[in-house]
Design goal:
Low-confidence stretches: 1-23, 25-33
Structural class: alpha+beta
Strand content: 5-15%
Oligomer: single chain
Mean pLDDT: 79
Length: 350
Amino acid sequence: MRSSRRHPLLVPVLLCAVAVLAARPTDAADPGGDSDSGLSAQVARLYEDAALATQQYEAGRREAEEQRTRARELEVLLDRQRQEIGGLHEDLGRIARAQYRDGGGMPATAQIILADSPDELMRGQHAFSRSKLAVDNAIDKSRRAEARLAADEEKARTAWEELEERNAELAAMKTDIERKLEEARRRLQDRADTLVAAGACRGAVRLDQPETHFTQPWVAPLETYALSAPYGSGGKRWARRHTGQDFAVPIGTPVRAVGAGRVVRVSCGGPFGVEVVLEHAGGYYTQYAHLAAVAVDQGERVGVGQWIGQSGTSGNSTGPHLHFEVRVTPESGSAVDPAAWLAARDVGIG
């Protein structure tokens, strides 16, 4: 059972979220969905939709937990109301028994005949009026309490049903978006594998860049991630020690330029698969490898935090991730520890 008290702003926000997500164009409605740029844009848009759906679903889940707590509190209050009603019923029984013992139920004609004096008659009539008023008040109070209890129980039931229905809609929307995103990721990676097999890129796929206002000159290459293989680690995947820092992220995650610079390489073949190399001030270069798509062309200048591609698992890769390197030349074999390099520029990735 759910309390009738709700957050005044959360309900419209959740309903608006359902409307906004439902209004998004479907795969079939996207005329550019089969092109490289259309597919990349679709994945980026679905990431935003999935994030919004998750946010609103979690908000609904938290609201449900709060409502469960309030429902338990309300049940205590309703139990008190039920006890009060039971007490009112007992009062009515006591009043009725007292009336019977005191002659309260005796007809007025009999009371006149049996009265020893006018004063006794008046006292009897006055006692009868008080007793009748007490009974009427008790009955009225009992009826009001029962009506209030029924209304509270109905409001609690209706509010809880509305919350469950709303959360079910959000959960279904979230599941549908995640299904579409997974399918779009698969198609995006298939395109990347085709490019790597051909050993040639088709040019940049332009993405709608988010509005960013970075105040620092350097940022991490991804907004959210989990660290995997670090710089210098060994393993079966590399002939030598690992030359970069791996970030485990799903296919299609937007990859950012860690700082302002110029694109000196866009490649779609070899062990790194689809890769981008940037040149930065100070003689350093950064590499972003195993991508599923690139959003820049060679020779282009980029700003800090600008999306330059989307993560993937192209080339010699065992799973979706971004391989990030910092070098002193554009070529492999000149890498330095990227975590330490970023830390020296006030960017922590741990």
